[in-house]
Design goal:
The complex is a heterodimer of chains A (369) and B (822). Chain A has 369 residues and is an all-alpha fold. Chain A is built from 12 helices and 2 strands, in the order H-H-H-H-E-E-H-H-H-H-H-H-H-H. Chain B has helices spanning 13-30, 40-60, 66-76, 79-88, 90-109, 112-139, 143-150, 167-176, 182-214, 217-241, 244-263, 266-280, 290-314, 323-350, 352-373, 381-398, 401-404, 409-427, 431-446, 449-456, 458-468, 478-483, 488-511, 515-541, 552-575, 577-607, 609-625, 630-669, 671-698, 701-729, 744-750, 756-792, 798-805, 808-811, 815-821, and strands at residues 315-316, 319-320. Classes of the chains: A mainly alpha (369), B mainly alpha (822).
Chain lengths: 369, 822
């Protein structure tokens, strides 16, 4: 079905509003009649908004990844000029190194939400999901079942086998939270103020430049696949059912991150931005995805559509509220994070269950994750 | 904290305004003082959310609004929610009210733990009530009302292998469509919900235990209360399956679990939990359908049978040789135990002692596997086989016949497990293990569902094989990707496409075939393989004309003898199917090699026909010279035996393939109907055979020689390609991919696969054919030259020499052929 032009849709909405109000009011006029009013929707839903959303974000990610790669190359060249003597590098090029790393962090903080906002779709659609493993979610080789698929070929001929996902490698190298990716034999006092503050890191140039090259390649490849991606109803439902009930692991990462655990944090990543921001971003993408299929569900089962729409928006609002509280200075304990995460997970699993029922009613196949 | 409703992101002002208008109108309508007008699910949401807001207020805020939030929750229990609960589930309404009272007390005193426990009780009571109302509505045929109450349900936690159940929704769809009775719908709903609540109960117990260990008191109390509340949903079914006394004990244990958690008494909680979970051992609340039981039984049998096989592959002489095989043995033991657990209740009713035997065998297998895996000790294979036999024998005694009948779904499960292992190995950078897992997956497919699928939809077989091997539908094959260090992403892409094809295959084999289709397919299989046999025999016998015509007889007799031999093979395969399956691919590889050897012999003979003729003539001459001598008898006998063997193996190879395919159809549809198809196929084959051999007699000799020579060469090249692929399948030769995309039909029809080994073999075979031809030509010319030289020396006329070397048509014209060709 071709999507109605925006003007037409607006008119339809204006026309539908009193009708829906009437329907609601009529539905509420007492009695125990739970019968639904079924509204016909001609053809399948228009999913171009999902593709547009995806490609907007994949292009933005590719752009930032390319920027990170340029900066990574410049950093490598400087290190090479210093014979990979990082003390000499800081001594001779401190200002330039500081500038490169600052710009790299800026690129990272733009790239990360660009990805997180589309993560619900990328990770939720099986034929794109490997990108999520490699870019954002995959573990290192010590966890083979969940490890990334790539290894980094360093310019010196060495191979860094399955180092973990690319956001993890680049973030922990830039922010100095993972010693494995940092220059050795020198304090990472990039700004030269005599102490290494949190967030200051001097990456190992071999590893960092290889990681940014891999990142650029993966982001470009994802963008190309996104451009070729034609979303189906099955994709949309699969993404929603796979990605909505993942709240507990995100909250767990938040709980273990510096934002909750402070200096005792066991999580090396998620230092540039709170994991709550990522969760809100992911849910934002899922809400948009749901909006595209909601009419179809409503035509079959209006109560189901209303329930899922409301609960999904409630969940997003719940996470955004926590994010805003944190941004406003509120600190959370591990127990609070646990309780809040458990509630988010329960709500998310209920939503996934509802969407599974809707898929069944609409005879839409849920793909194997 | 109360979650806000979120407005859509896009700046759709008009839409927003419309929504606001609608909401305002709705709010007006809903604010009517008569009663709460929300649907039950909205009221239930309000109860849950208001209680959580109260909890959050104590957790993160001052707690000042906690009591007001609890009152809001209590107010939501009114209208339709209250009325219908009162009618269909008064006990759960009572529990809900008690929980809300407890919440009110806890909120008033700022008791976070008490409030959490009360919320857990309230949610469980709501779900219990919704369960009862939905069942009552479905029983009354009111599908819309049942559907509305199902919105309050909980779901099984989704994992990689399980999704939330949809049986309840499907049951109501069928009820609405008039495809199911109210009783069927009730069964569907009960099955789905009981499964979900039992699964959830266990996860809540786990969550409670973890929270208790971490000292998170509120979560400890809430999760335990939820588990105890869900127990009350399952309890009637438990009592029905066990007895009243058992239920009473379990009631006490679950109640104690909730109470001790609410008090934060971890020690007593641990005891109560163990007792509660102990009561659930072997209990499955959701009734399995007979089909599901049968499927689990088949999985159990398949998994159990694979344990000694994998153990055998992974160990040798008291040491572990391939660790991966031991891990597979562990995986299959776990799979078998999981399947057994699902059937345990049903089996315990039939034979409690048998159940204990199987459990004891599983425990021992676990121990042996773990010892081998961790390098502690390697038990001899005999011990594993004895345990397998023990468990297998007990199961065989306990299983009803329908659980023992054929089922291809279990094979698909095995394929899935192996492909999962393949991906895990790829992610671990273990390419060799990945390849082994891929080969396992392929073997499970080929000697499981492929046989039947080949009879139902051969193109789907080609697609599946394409994904597993060298590519299909524009995607690279798994064999190719693994061998060429393809990325995990590419492997994932192919896996997804393969999964889709396997799903399709599962549907196709699951639907099975109608009687007419089985007859047709059986006939087609026999006809297809029969044609191949005719082609080969016709090609071999084409040049046996004139004086050599009599040589046809042993070949044709050998070919005819292969027919009853194939029938015997069929009977054997029916009797020892499982044993054959174990060695199936290797058997196919060996038969393929024999067939190639035979064809090479044929070709050699074909091109060197004259020398063979000479050799036979030599025997004849010697026979005359040594009339009656034993030596001549042996030589002639060997020749005849060779020709018998030629005919016999040529046809038996086709018979072997036919048997494999027909075996699958026989399991699907029964022997009678398959025999009908076989008879039909044989009739058509006989007709085509008669026409072929008649044409062979009439076609000009030289043209016939060329055509048959080309055809035999083609058959050889195809057979070499296919056999090399089978040899790769059993891991006897390596796989070195060539980076070209070949269409699937080239593999299916020409045996052309993009690897150096398969194509190299075919090129070698082709080179042999050509070389053989040129060698024959060279030998012929040399012979003529020698004859001419001998003639020139006065030892005879050149014609005498040529008489032995030229094709008979030239010097000994076959009157029959010449007549026709003129």
């Amino acid at each position: 079905m071709q999507r109605a032009p925006r003007q037409t849709r607006t008119r339809l909405a204006l026309f539908a509003a009193p009708l829906s109000a009437f329907a609601l009011a009529a539905g509420g006029c007492g009695g125990d009649d739970d019968s639904d009013t079924t509204t016909a929707v001609a053809g399948g839903p228009d999913l171009t908004a999902i593709k547009q959303y995806l490609t907007d974000h994949s292009t933005a990610l590719a752009k930032q990844a390319a920027r990170m790669r340029d900066l990574g190359d410049r950093y490598y060249e400087l290190a090479e000029q210093s014979g990979f003597d990082y003390a000499a590098l800081l001594r001779d090029h401190r200002a330039e190194v500081g500038q490169i790393l600052d710009q790299s962090k800026q690129a990272y903080t733009v790239a990360n939400p660009a990805y997180e906002e589309m993560e619900g779709i990328v990770a939720g659609v099986p034929r794109l999901a490997q990108y999520d493993v490699d870019i954002d979610a995959g573990a290192d080789g010590s966890d083979p079942e969940n490890a990334v698929s790539f290894s980094l070929e360093l310019a010196n001929g060495e191979t860094l086998k399955q180092p973990g996902n690319l956001f993890f490698v680049t973030e922990t190298a830039l922010y100095g939270t993972n010693p494995d990716f940092l220059a050795t034999g020198v304090e990472g006092d990039v700004d030269g103020d005599g102490k290494v503050e949190f967030g200051e890191g001097l990456p190992d140039a071999e590893i960092y430049s290889a990681a940014t090259r891999e990142f650029e390649e993966q982001a470009r490849s994802l963008d190309a696949d996104a451009q070729a991606f034609e979303p189906t109803q099955s994709d949309a439902f699969t993404a929603l059912t796979v990605m909505t009930p993942t709240m507990s692991e995100y909250f767990e990462a938040w709980k273990n991150s510096r934002f909750v655990a402070g200096e005792k944090a066991t999580e090396q990543a998620f230092v540039a931005a709170s994991r709550l921001q990522d969760i809100a971003d992911i849910l934002g993408g899922l809400v948009l995805t749901y909006e595209q299929v909601e009419p179809e569900i409503a035509a079959e089962n209006p109560q189901q559509a209303a329930q899922t729409g409301q609960e999904l928006n409630d969940l997003l609002a719940y996470v955004e509220d926590l994010r805003d509280r944190e941004a406003g200075g509120q600190k959370f304990t591990a127990e609070q994070a646990d309780t809040l995460g458990a509630e988010a997970q329960r709500r998310a699993e209920a939503i996934a269950g509802q969407l599974t029922q809707a898929a069944q009613q609409l005879d839409i196949e849920l793909q194997e994750a | 904290m109360r979650a806000r409703n979120r407005t859509p992101r896009a700046p759709r002002l008009a839409i927003t305004a419309a929504a606001a208008l609608a909401a305002a109108a709705a709010a007006f309508a809903l604010s009517a003082p008569t009663a709460r007008a929300e649907a039950p699910w909205q009221q239930a949401d309000e109860v849950r959310n208001a209680l959580f807001d109260a909890q959050t207020d104590i957790l993160l805020g001052s707690g000042a609004s906690a009591a007001a939030n609890v009152r809001a929750a209590a107010t939501a229990v009114s209208g339709r929610l209250e009325r219908q609960l009162a009618t269909s589930s008064p006990a759960s309404l009572r529990e809900l009210r008690e929980a809300l009272s407890a919440a009110e007390r806890a909120a008033a005193s700022g008791d976070e733990v008490g409030l959490a426990a009360a919320r857990g009780m309230a949610i469980a009571a709501l779900r219990h009530g919704a369960f009862d109302v939905a069942i009552a509505a479905a029983a009354a045929g009111e599908s819309a009302r049942a559907r509305g109450w199902l919105l309050i349900r909980d779901f099984r936690q989704a994992t990689r292998f399980t999704r939330p159940g949809v049986d309840a929704t499907a049951a109501l769809d069928q009820l609405e469509a008039g495809e199911a009775t109210a009783a069927d719908a009730v069964t569907g709903i009960r099955k789905d919900l009981l499964d979900a609540y039992q699964a959830r109960l266990v996860t809540y117990v786990d969550d409670a235990s973890q929270a208790g260990e971490r000292g998170f008191a509120a979560a400890f109390a809430e999760n335990a209360a939820l588990a105890a509340g869900y127990w009350r949903i399952l309890a009637p079914e438990y009592e029905a399956q066990r007895d009243r006394a058992a239920r009473k004990d379990a009631d006490v244990a679950f109640a104690a679990m909730a109470a001790t958690a609410a008090r934060g008494d971890s020690l007593r909680y641990g005891r109560a939990r163990d007792s509660a979970l102990g009561a659930l051992t072997g209990f499955t609340a959701a009734p399995f359908t007979p089909e599901e039981q049968s499927r689990r039984a088949h999985q159990l049998t398949r998994f159990l049978d694979l344990v000694p096989i994998e153990y055998d592959h992974g160990t040798d002489d008291g040491r572990v040789t391939i660790a991966f095989e031991i891990q597979e043995s562990i995986a299959f033991t776990e799979g078998a135990r999981a399947a057994f657990t699902d059937l345990q209740s049903a089996l315990a009713e039939r034979d409690p002692e048998g159940v204990q035997t199987v459990l004891a065998a599983f425990d021992e297998l676990d121990r042996i596997n773990a010892d081998a895996n961790e390098g502690r000790a390697v038990a001899p294979l005999d011990e594993v086989e004895a345990l397998h036999d023990e468990a297998s024998g007990a199961l065989d005694e306990m299983f009803p016949q329908e659980w023992k009948d054929s089922d291809t779904d279990a094979d698909f499960d095995l394929v899935d497990i192996s492909l999962d292992q393949m991906e895990a190995a790829i992610n671990a950078g273990e390419r060799e293990q990945a390849e082994q897992a891929r080969l396992s997956a392929y073997a499970f497919f080929e000697f499981g569902p492929e046989r039947l699928l080949n009879s139902l939809d051969p193109s789907l077989v080609a697609e599946v094989e394409g994904y597993v091997w060298y590519g299909a539908e524009g995607k690279q094959g798994l064999a190719e990707l693994i061998a060429s260090d393809g990325s995990g992403r590419d492997i994932r892409h192919t896996r997804l496409a393969l999964d889709e094809a396997l799903d399709e295959a599962k549907k196709t084999t699951g639907e099975g075939a109608e009687g007419f289709t089985v007859v047709t397919n059986a006939a087609l299989i026999v006809f297809r393989e029969g044609l191949e046999a005719i082609l080969i025999i016709a090609a071999i016998t084409a040049s046996m004309i004139g004086a050599n015509r009599r040589l046809r007889e042993p070949i044709l007799r050998g070919a005819l003898l292969a027919l009853p031999a194939s029938a015997v093979l069929f009977v054997i395969s029916v009797l020892v199917l499982e044993s054959l399956s174990r060695y199936g691919e290797k058997l196919e590889a060996i038969v393929g090699l024999i067939a190639i050897a035979v064809l090479l012999l044929v070709l050699n003979w074909f091109f060197h026909r004259v020398y063979w003729t000479e050799w036979i003539a030599g025997h004849r001459k010697r026979g005359k010279a040594l009339a009656g001598s034993a030596r001549a008898g042996v030589a002639a006998g060997a020749t005849v035996a060779g020709l018998y063997l030629l005919g016999f193996t040529s046809v038996l190879r086709e018979g072997f393939e036919t048997v494999l395919f027909l075996q699958a159809l026989q399991l699907e549809a029964g022997i009678g109907i398959v025999l009908a198809g076989v008879s039909l196929g044989l009739v058509f084959t006989a007709i085509i055979g008669a026409i072929t051999f008649a044409l062979e007699r009439k076609l000009p000799y030289k043209r016939m020689l060329i055509v048959t020579g080309v055809l035999i060469s083609l058959v050889l090249v195809v057979m070499v390609g296919n056999t090399m692929r089978v040899l790769q399948g059993v891991g006897w030769i390596s796989i070195t991919p060539i980076d070209v995309d070949l269409p699937l039909w080239m593999g299916t029809w020409l045996g052309v696969f993009p690897t150096w080994e398969t194509i190299g073999g075919q090129v070698a075979a082709f080179a042999f054919v050509i070389g053989s031809y040129f060698l024959a030509e060279w030998m012929r010319k040399r012979s003529v030259r020698r004859a001419a030289e001998e003639a020139a020396e006065g030892n005879g006329s050149p014609a005498d020499a040529i008489d032995r070397t030229k094709p008979p048509r030239r010097l000994e014209p076959d009157p029959e052929r010449e007549t026709v060709s003129r």
